[in-house]
Amino acid sequence: MAVGFDFDHTLGMDHKLERSAFVELMGWYAVLRGAAFDAAGADKIADENILRYRAGQCSLEQAFDAAFIAVQGQKPATDAIAQFKQLVIERAPEHVTALPGAPELLARLDAATIPYAILTNGWNPLQQCKAELIGFQKPVFVSDDLGVRKPNVHAFNVLIDEFGLPAAQVWYVGDDPNNDILGSLGAGMRAIWFDWEGKKYPTNVPAPTAIVTRLLDVLDLVL
Fold it and tell me: What does pTM read for this prediction?
């Protein structure tokens, strides 16, 4: 038996880290230009483009460029995306928190010698950094490194290969019915929907193998 985890809204939260860093960076640029700065407008533009990236509609660089142009009215300098990424990593400790039960869950899995890993959409070194900030010390697989995003089954096959077990012996825990449940079921895994936010499960997605509302309830299924 082994367990794969999503990160965001499953093991931890980053409390709008990327949006916050983008708005902070845009404020710096506005000061350098001596221009007025609409922070609320930048918030909205950042959210819109981060959502496009997370939906797989564009790369992080394309999302950043589009947001930068919308806020600044001009193309970013070639090093602007690097500045953004560096700022995100610097601000991560101020934003990232573990969800209730996450540290105890991981400790109990360690005690039971059950292997586990993270499979998450996003970019590195950010996702690795966020995992480390909640004390996660096992493998972290990130979509931009893999070249494939959840819910594509090829992303989940990376976990199966990591564990060296039949897919049916791997549980995957996530909060997103489409990315997490649809994808892991499609790869032959057993899927746990972590419904801690009281969302309505979509009717066009296969039912999960199990539903939990607390992370520690995962232990009742995998131990």
Answer: 0.96
Residue given tokens 């981060």 in the structure block? 50
- What span, in angstroms and rounded, lies between the C-alpha atoms of 47 and 33? 24
Strands 190-194 and 210-212: parallel
Q: What's the rounded Cα separation, in Å, for the pair 179 and 120?
A: 9
* Residues 6+ positions from 113 with CB-CB distance below 8 Å: none
pLDDT in tens, 141-190: 999 999 999 999 999 999 999 999 999 999 999 999 999 999 999 999 99
Place of tokens 């449940």: 181
Spatial separation of the C-alpha atoms in residues 45 and 58, rounded to whole Å: 15
- Please calculate the CA angle 10-14-15 and round it to the nearest 5 degrees: 110
Dist CA 118 CA 154 (whole Å): 15
Return the CATH superfamily for domain 2-13+96-222. HAD superfamily/HAD-like (3.40.50.1000)
